[in-house]
């Protein structure tokens, strides 16, 4: 028996049916569960490929399966890479359902798109957090946007997500929404007006660390005051803040800063530890020649206790003496220098947005 709703739809005139079909097609990207599919697809894709890999090793014994599984996770990890040079590129377009009456991408859709980009970044650059027995996740604390110019309706655009910095609790990711100029068309550098007095115009590269994390983690570097900001870094910050064009000529439409952390249950994992177990490291290392930090990671995964890594991430790392913390050594040198230089700008934005809580 045909339901009354379907029966009514079938009884509609042909022009009306075409209109409803067109309406459905235009808004299909905003249908129920469409957002969930786009955001969660990278995670389930990662798990699916791992299951397919496990099926290919059914003929091996238990030890052989474990070795093959670890080798697969090794191949999925950014071993020996610098976390600051890794970029997640996500391509999208300003569809009709995501554009407003001004005929450009709605401001609300920048946040919706970032949900997908961040999760893709996590699955690509922090896959070890999603292994069986670890079961980590990444809660978002805040996202801050600076809108520079609109993205026209139906225009294609790209989101470039890179790491900004991290402290003892929070990690910051910088996202840029850009478009490529049409071929044969000269682009002029757009210069933003000078910010009004009282508007935050902090430097991009100045030393500091996370000092207000709710979860008790050890702080390492004190937050500097405005008087400590080097003048040359201020000039660099001013230049970056007023140029609306990337090095490759892409036009920047929006800049976002996402603040998030890593957790297992209600326990926060230090960002440096998450990066290190996924293979990020200073130095000349690779999959064939992994850094000592990744060797230590593999030893944890190879222990008879399948929950060894989970227990370590949930607090076992605190028992490691300060001088033996391999994850801090892995992210030392130039990586630590860059992290410290960038952190003040990220922290000032967070602290500035925390201030209205008192109002």
From TrEMBL:
Record InterPro entries: HotDog_dom_sf, THEM6_lcsJ_thioesterase
Chain ranges passing through the membrane: none
Any single Pfam family the record assigns to this protein: 4HBT_2
Family classification: Belongs to the lcsJ thioesterase family.
Stated name of the protein: Thioesterase/thiol ester dehydrase-isomerase
Organism, as annotated: Armillaria gallica
Organism phylogeny: Eukaryota, Fungi, Dikarya, Basidiomycota, Agaricomycotina
